[in-house]
Amino acid sequence: MADKKNDEIKENFNSVKKQIAEAAQRCGRNPDEITLVAVSKKKSVDAIVKAIDVGVEILGENYIQEAVNKIEVIHTKSPSWHFIGHLQSNKAKVAVKYFDLIHTVDSLKLAKEINRHAEKAGKIQDILIQINISQEETKSGAAAEEGVKLAEAVSRLKFLSLKGVMGMPPFFDDPERARPYLRRLANIREAIKRENIEKISMEHLSMGMSDDFRIAIEEGSTMVRIGTAIFGSR
Ligand SMILES: *Cc1c(COP(=O)(O)O)cnc(C)c1O
User: Fold this and answer.
1) pLDDT of residue 136
2) Which ligand 1 atom sits nearest the alpha carbon of residue 166?
3) Is the CB of 95 under 6 A from ligand 1?
4) What is the domain extent for residue 174?
5) Which of 20, 91, 189, 205 would you label with 34, given CA atoms 20 to 30 Å apart?
6) CB 16 within 8 A of CB 230
7) Is the pTM above the cut of 0.70?
């Protein structure tokens, strides 16, 4: 008997990939510039294994303990795992052990903790700086004005490799309203690039979720983080 769930994830994944390619082509970009992170928070090991089997290569998780439980079970499939949730300094060690890219570095204190554990683990940890583009008190992320300063400080930490910035606009029913926030994040990345800081690459602009990834791609996103459109609602 055909596994219905499997087909659903497969159809969703293929449809999202197609929409990413179409959005890229519409604005004259190469679809290969855009990396898809499938966000699997609150989704079962079963669903994740199905996603890997249909071609998902990068998974994004928000909660350290939940992620570790799943990664320990799924490790034989060896996809790449990205951490996209709020990271507390006391979880930095675990994050370094399990994740190829940490999207959510929002303070020098956290960066230093990650750096310390990366050194111990003999690893260069790839990170993104998370910027609070929504300017809501409750949202995490470094203040926009501090992006350049934080990037400079991070660039001096030997066991970190800064690859770009990440951000999340506030939620709107009409995703078009997210555009100014996405554009602001793209501008912050450009401002950091212009500083020509040594030893950082800034190749990534991590923005765009299920509702707004087409607009994020138009605004220059290189990394979209998509959960619901692939795995269904949570
Ligand atoms: C949950 C989450 C996503 C995915 O959201 P969807 O709307 O389900 O696509 C992306 N980024 C972050 C930081 C998230 O927490």
Assistant:
1) 75
2) 13
3) no
4) 2-231
5) 91
6) yes
7) yes
| pLDDT per position as a tens digit, 105-115 | 999 999 999 99
Helix residue ranges, H only, 33-162: 45-53, 64-74, 92-98, 108-121, 147-155
Cα(4) to ligand 1 centroid in Å equals 24
- Which one, of 210, 215, 206, 207, lies nearest residue 229 by Cα? 210
Please tell me the total count of domains within the chain: 1
pLDDT of residue 140: 86
Amino acid at 90: N
- Give Cα separations from 23 to 149, 152, 182, 211, 212 (angstroms): 33, 33, 15, 13, 11
pLDDT score recorded for residue 3: 57
Domain with residue 210: its CATH number is 3.20.20.10
Atom of ligand 1 nearest to the CA of 226: 9
Assigned token pair, 213: 């990834």
Q: Which of 225, 230, 231 maximizes ligand 1 atoms within 8 Å of its Cβ, making it the mutation to test the pocket?
A: 225
For the CA atoms of the chain, what is the radius of gyration? 17
- With left for phi above 0 and alpha for psi between -120 and 50, is residue 160 left, alpha or beta? beta
Q: Which atom of ligand 1 is least distant from the CA of 103? A: 13
Quickly tell me which residue has 């303070």 as its tokens: 107
Lowest mean pLDDT among 3-7, 26-30, 153-157: 3-7
